Amino acid sequence: MYRETAVEVGRQLGRRGAGLVYGGGNVGLMGALADAALAAGGEVIGVIPRVLMNREIDHRGLTQLHVVDSMHQRKALMAELADAFLALPGGIGTFEELCEALAWSKLGIHGKACGLLNVEGYYDPLLAMMDRAVSEGFLAPEDRALLIADTDVARLIERLLG
């Protein structure tokens, strides 16, 4: 179900004429997302650190592939190139990148929308934790509102891109 959802996100972005900026890999959900966006006619820009490219996991069929020296450079360039941020279900790297995008939004480093696609309730615990952080006074309600969560691909993309 996660792969199918990633493919649907790619299709929707491609059909809308919205580009995709992502980590540049050809494996896993992100590889499936990139392939679907390309197949739907979308522009796909990858940003990959040299260390990962050397492991031959870079996607060779992208519109553009930027090779950078570090993960910090990767995230900075991805943030510069993107119009919005969308997290699919993922692991520690996804969590870290989502939280950084939210923190940068709160700090005014960017004003780009941040969203997550809550597939089959995957992010329910994270959303509950954020709501608890608000109720316990650790997170301001306006900062909690910076994260747009939805279960529907088309609706989330519309909310992020307008």
List the helices and strands and how they pair.
Elements: H1 2-16, E1 20-22, H2 28-39, E2 44-49, H3 50-53, E3 64-68, H4 71-81, E4 84-87, H5 92-106, E5 113-117, H6 124-135, H7 141-144, E6 147-150, H8 153-161
Parallel strand pairs: 1-2, 2-3, 4-5, 5-6
Helix pairs in contact: 1-2
Q: Describe it for me?
A:
This protein is α/β, with parallel strands linked by helices and 162 residues long. It has eight helices and six strands; from the N terminus they run αβαβαβαβαβααβα. Helix 1 packs parallel to helix 2 (28-39). The radius of gyration is 15 Å and the shape is globular. The model has no long low-confidence stretch (mean pLDDT 95).
Summarize the structure.
This protein has helices spanning 2-16, 28-39, 50-53, 71-81, 92-106, 124-135, 141-144, 153-161; strands at 20-22, 44-49, 64-68, 84-87, 113-117, 147-150.
In helices, the fraction of residues equals 40-55%
Our measurement of the CA-to-CA distance between the termini, rounded to an integer number of angstroms, reads 26 Å
Kindly provide the name of the CATH class of the largest domain: Alpha Beta
Structural class: alpha/beta
